[in-house]
Amino acid sequence: MNSKIDTIIFDLGGVLVDWNPQYLYEKIFSTQEEIDWFLNNVCTPDWNIEQDAGRTIAEANTIKIKEFPKYSNEIKLFYDRWEEMFSGPIHKSVEIQQKLLKSPNYRVYALTNWSAETWDRGRNLFPFLNDFEGVIVSGQEKMRKPYDEIYQLIINRFNITPENSVFIDDNYENTVAATKNGINSIHFKTSEKLLIDLQKLNVII
Length: 205
Description:
By secondary structure, the chain is an alpha/beta fold. It is built from eleven helices and seven strands. InterPro entries: HAD-like_sf (IPR036412), HAD-SF_hydro_IA (IPR006439), HAD_sf (IPR023214), PGP-like_dom2 (IPR023198).
């Protein structure tokens, strides 16, 4: 990790925006126990990530409603009221993103696991998502992190030199995969820690 960093690649959810289905379903269910059961058994992370990989929302809903017909309305709300799953931007991270974008020393991209059908909704909700020099959206490409092919895609599409780049993600598994593909990585925990980790790589903000 001693190479000169010239490219910064951001994950989005959990790094620049705070997304959690909990925020929506606490408005729907009356107890935390109900919320936890629903998100652990019905609209699970494994179900959601298939939309990030390219499955349509209509197909996803059909599959899950067939499995849990009692919860058909609550299942549909996952995407009907998807915007309510955000608490807002992670402001200090967005400040870092904006400063890097203004620097002549760095190219700044995003690599996100995100449904193709909600991407435009997200960009409307958070205009700073439009500021990147380029974005790889997993649902549009029908491939997702942490599989090698999506890292190779961003490297090739934007002519990135892996050893001169750094990838920031709150999911540790995704950072391990980036490292495997030759990209320096930072496991995001807080914006303050991110600033320190970037400074260790001699990234000037």
